[in-house]
Amino acid sequence: MTTNRRDFLTAAVTAAGAALTPDVPHTHDHEHQAVPSDVALRVKALESLLVEKGLVDRAALDALIDTYENKIGPRNGARVIARAWADSAYKQRLLANADAAIAELGYGGMQGEHMVVVENTPKIHNMIVCTLCSCYPWPVLGLPPVWYKSAPYRSRTVIDPRGVLREFGLELPADVEVRVWDSTAELRYLVLPERPAGTAHWNEEQLAALVTRDSMVGVAKVAPPQAGVSA
Amino acid sequence: MNGVHDMGGMHGMGPVQEEKNEPVFHEQWEGRVFALRRAMGAWRKWNIDVTRHEVELVPPADYLRMSYYERQFAAFLVLLAKVAFITPKELDAGKPAPGTPVAVPALTVEKANLLIAKGAPTSRDVPVAPRFLAGQRVRARNINPVGHTRLPRYARGKLGTIDRDHGVFVFPDTNAHYLGEKPQHVYSVRFAARELWGQQAAQQDSVYLDLWDDYLDPA
């Protein structure tokens, strides 16, 4: 374990091309593996060390994890979308100044400090990607799913958006304009999907229940309510 | 840097695989890595561009093999060692070096909640004149810096149109190397898909990138 742990840091430091501190032992008589299978133990060991040094407070870690596991997620974004569908004045504010409009519903903050909302129409389809890392609007969608952070999505969305959408089950007509938004700076994007037919008399809560995460990333449309289900 | 992280337009990565009912964290350690990075970030020894660049420095084969949180953890360890929060000996022993003074954590629960609610805006309220106006034609510069940049390879040298001006933001290419914020305007720039990818792309499709003044020339 001791050797492995040393190997891990050495490998990680070396791997990243970092300036080695003089006391890092560096050997080449083993296979470098930057993250061994016992990564869980290594994370635990690091956390214990940082806590013991007084550098982190475990309660703050727990609060962060609890927030993103249980409090902040795509239901937030769904409420924003439902409000925009139900209230045209709100929709105009949302498209003109997303930060302020999203804050009206009490959302905002980390990784959503500078929001932009882009509107889908029958002739324009927007979709969001971050080709360089995995930027994503946390306050309204929560942390991104694995596929959003994956090489296939990051590599292909800008060059073959229609092919990617097909894998999500969405075939766009040839005359629709596809706009891909690559989150290369600190702007974070949210797609305002089209309101589905058959929801004319639905209230915001009912509308919000229809809105999916994928529709707000722009890899799906919001499906109309199933036949037989009435509001 | 022209690293493997700059993935836009690459082939061969396979199909997108969506997981139904995906948990926020698949393993407990992923959540701990996520939270530890924020908690240590509160010491303000680095910035978001530094952390992004550190992930980019993970060697390409490892970068592609690792999961997102594995990459984050590997880069985090390097960063902790670089700024001397921990020494290799301490990590090796799992204990602080004898005689190390005990600090008071930078991120309390209260501050964590404030960070979540307020974030860390990277816009800057400084009077910097924009170099471009909405509607103007621009060409993304053909630059190949060995350091950090947020101008993807696929857009370099390409012609685009300024869609809108987002205001003044910290410039990552300097900030990632502790060379200052160099605040400047960021624009949404629209590139026709055919300008980027040729005739294989649909005529009406486009890709929008958020680009800083220093990435653009008038066209």
Helix proportion of residues of chain A, in percent?
40-55%
- Specify Rg of chain A, calculated over alpha carbons: 22 Å
Q: Total number of helical segments of chain B?
A: 8
How far apart are the termini of chain B?
A: 25 Å
Tally of helical runs of chain A: 12
Low-confidence stretches of chain B: none
Terminal Cα span of chain A: 60 Å
List its salient traits.
heterodimer, A: 231 residues, mainly alpha, Nitrile Hydratase, Chain A, two-stranded parallel ribbon, 12 helices, 4 strands, 45% helix, disordered N terminus, B: 219 residues, alpha+beta, Cyclin A, domain 1, SH3 type barrels, 2 domains
How would you portray this structure in words?
The complex is a heterodimer of chains A (about 230) and B (about 220). Chain A is mainly alpha-helical and about 230 residues long. In chain A, about 45% of the residues lie in helices and about 10% in strands. Chain A has 2 domains: about 60 residues, no CATH class; about 150 residues, Nitrile hydratase alpha /Thiocyanate hydrolase gamma (Nitrile Hydratase, Chain A, Alpha-Beta Complex), CATH 3.90.330.10. In chain A, the strands form 2 sheets. In chain A, strands 1-4 form a two-stranded parallel sheet. Chain A has a two-stranded parallel sheet with strand order 2-3. In chain A, helix 4 crosses helix 11 and helix 5 packs across helix 6. The longest helix of chain A is centred in the first third of the chain and has 14 residues. Chain A is globular. The termini of chain A are far apart. With about 220 residues, chain B is α+β, with helices and mostly antiparallel strands. Helices cover about 30% and strands about 15% of the residues of chain B. Chain B contains 8 helices and 5 strands, in the order ααααααββαβαββ. At the A-B interface, helix 1, helix 2, helix 3, helix 8 and helix 9 of A face helix 1, helix 2, helix 4, helix 5 and helix 6 of B. Strand 3 of chain A pairs parallel with strand 4 of chain B, so a sheet runs across the interface.
